[in-house]
């Protein structure tokens, strides 16, 4: 497989948006999309961890392939991601205290975010090389942030509308998500 | 600690505390692999298998695991059983394995399983844990099957690959697309709330 980096980035950013087309990271998408500022922080944290996790997963996968131990792939990925989250947390804490305070509880929560493991698994199953993996992870992170921001914006507006009783809460969020997802299908075919 | 009866567990897992419809856990697979009944069934069964097996394991070793590392231990146990389930599916049906793709591996991060291990299996003896896990697994399977049935019926006019609605049915392709998943789940949630309210 030999795709251009830009195509991969656009692919995971818009065309096959991780949240709206692959349904990865739905929990935070529904959970923390209520307010704009939390959505920004969550998106930032996820993008950061995604990049680190993608790099580490690439390395681990090379190692496992060299040792002929692909059976252990899933277990090692999970461990690597958990460790990567901790590392990112430490790093952010040391270098930028305001950012750390802003991300707060979201960083540890990311360990169980399926979008992160999804990046690691998809890049492996598609045999991306190192740079391609990075482009893929960057696009996925940006796509996740974009979806989260759009959703948060919409939900802040929804507060002023008056939907029927039954649809309030998650059902309404899901319907809005469905419409967003349809809108994103308009990007199909972009970037080749 | 008092053990809930099997009947209570089933009632909670299948209906009153259905992991998908009430607790809103494990939404990713419910949305992603519910575009046909066969995929939904495979996903439901695989998740239930992992749920029950890891509940049994977690419950067995619950006295030896230090609280500070318990989450890591649980995740390792779950990942082991997911790897097993993946190999099993690959051996039984290569077609299903291809259709589900990375989503089988993603069972690891299904919050239902870790939630069950943390909130129930790590505090109760093996038998009630397995019953609880089984009922939650059935609740998950029920929800994902309902999604799969609606989406396949409206999107293709068929169930499990057999044509049900006849030749003159014009398929609503949107239900097979990602957007349709959101709509159907939102609709199911509304129905559930409506039913609950009338029951009250």
Structure description:
The complex is a heterodimer of chains A (192) and B (200). Chain A is mainly alpha-helical and 192 residues long. Chain A has helices at residues 5-15, 26-31, 36-67, 73-95, 97-103, 106-109, 114-125, 130-158, 170-184. In chain A, helix 4 packs across helix 5. The longest helix of chain A is centred in the first third of the chain and has 32 residues, at 36-67. Chain A is globular, with a radius of gyration of 17 Å. With 200 residues, chain B is mainly alpha-helical. Helix content of chain B is 68%, strand content 2%. Chain B has helices at residues 6-16, 27-32, 37-60, 70-92, 94-100, 111-121, 126-156, 178-199, and strands spanning 158-159, 162-163. Chain B has a two-stranded antiparallel sheet. In chain B, helix 3 (37-60) packs parallel to helix 6. The longest helix of chain B is centred in the C-terminal third of the chain and has 31 residues, at 126-156. The radius of gyration of chain B is 18 Å and the shape is globular. The mean pLDDT of chain B is 87. The chains are: A mainly alpha (192), B mainly alpha (200). At the A-B interface, helix 2, helix 4, helix 7 and helix 9 of A face helix 2, helix 4 and helix 8 of B.
Q: What does the secondary structure layout of this molecule look like, with pairings?
A:
The complex is a heterodimer of chains A (192) and B (200).
Chain A: H1 5-15, H2 26-31, H3 36-67, H4 73-95, H5 97-103, H6 106-109, H7 114-125, H8 130-158, H9 170-184
Helix pairs in contact in A: 1-8, 3-4, 3-7, 3-8, 4-5, 4-7, 7-8, 8-9
Chain B: H1 6-16, H2 27-32, H3 37-60, H4 70-92, H5 94-100, H6 111-121, H7 126-156, E1 158-159, E2 162-163, H8 178-199
Helix pairs in contact in B: 1-7, 3-4, 3-6, 3-7, 4-5, 4-6, 6-7
Strand order, main sheet of chain B: write it out.
1-2
Helix-strand string of chain A: HHHHHHHHH
The largest interface is: A-B, 38 and 39 residues
Rg over C-alpha atoms of chain A, rounded to the nearest angstrom: 17 Å
Structural class of chain A: mainly alpha
* Mean pLDDT across residues of chain B: 87
Determine the fraction of residues in helical runs of chain A and give it as a percent range.
over 70%
Multimeric status of the protein: heterodimer
**Mean pLDDT across all amino acids of chain A:** 83
| Shape category of chain A | globular
Report the portion of residues of chain A in β strands.
Answer: under 5%
DSSP strand count of chain A? 0
Taking all Cα atoms into account, the compactness measure Rg of chain B is 18 Å
Total helical elements of chain A: 9
Helix content of chain B: 55-70%
The shape of chain B, in one word, is globular
- Show unreliable segments of chain B: none
């Amino acid at each position: 497989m030999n795709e251009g980096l830009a195509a991969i980035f656009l692919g995971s950013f818009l065309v096959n948006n991780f949240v709206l087309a692959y349904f990865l990271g739905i929990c935070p998408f529904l959970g923390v999309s209520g307010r704009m500022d939390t959505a920004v922080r969550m998106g930032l944290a996820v993008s950061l961890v995604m990049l680190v996790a993608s790099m580490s997963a690439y390395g681990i996968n090379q190692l496992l392939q060299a040792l002929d131990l692909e059976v252990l792939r899933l277990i090692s990925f999970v461990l690597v991601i958990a460790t990567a989250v901790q590392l990112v947390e430490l790093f952010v804490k040391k270098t930028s205290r305001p950012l750390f305070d802003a991300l707060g509880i979201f960083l540890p929560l990311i360990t169980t975010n399926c979008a992160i493991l999804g990046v690691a698994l998809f890049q492996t199953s598609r045999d991306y090389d190192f740079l391609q993996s990075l482009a893929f992870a960057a696009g996925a992170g940006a796509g996740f942030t974009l979806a989260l921001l759009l959703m948060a914006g919409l939900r802040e507006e929804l507060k002023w509308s008056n939907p029927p009783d039954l649809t309030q809460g998650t059902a309404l969020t899901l319907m809005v998500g469905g419409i967003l997802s349809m809108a994103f299908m308009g990007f199909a075919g972009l970037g080749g | 600690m008092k053990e809930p009866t099997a009947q209570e567990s089933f009632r909670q897992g299948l209906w009153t505390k259905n992991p998908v419809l009430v607790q809103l856990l494990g939404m990713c697979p419910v949305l992603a692999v519910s575009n046909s009944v066969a995929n939904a069934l495979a996903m439901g069964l695989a998740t239930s298998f992992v749920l029950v097996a890891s509940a049994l394991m977690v419950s067995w070793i619950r006295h030896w695991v230090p609280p500070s590392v318990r989450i890591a231990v649980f995740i390792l146990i779950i990942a082991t059983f997911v790897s097993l389930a993946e190999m099993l599916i690959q051996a039984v049906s290569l077609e299903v394995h291809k259709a589900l793709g990375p989503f089988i591996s993603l069972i690891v991060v299904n919050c239902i399983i870790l939630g069950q291990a943390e909130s129930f299996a790590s505090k109760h003896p093996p038998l009630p844990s397995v019953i609880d896990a089984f009922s939650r697994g059935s609740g998950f399977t029920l929800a994902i099957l309902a999604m799969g049935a609606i989406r396949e019926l409206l999107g293709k006019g068929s169930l499990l690959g057999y044509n049900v609605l006849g030749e003159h049915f014009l398929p609503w392709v949107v239900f097979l697309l990602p957007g349709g998943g959101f709509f159907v789940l939102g609709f199911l949630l509304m129905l559930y709330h409506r039913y609950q309210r009338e029951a009250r």
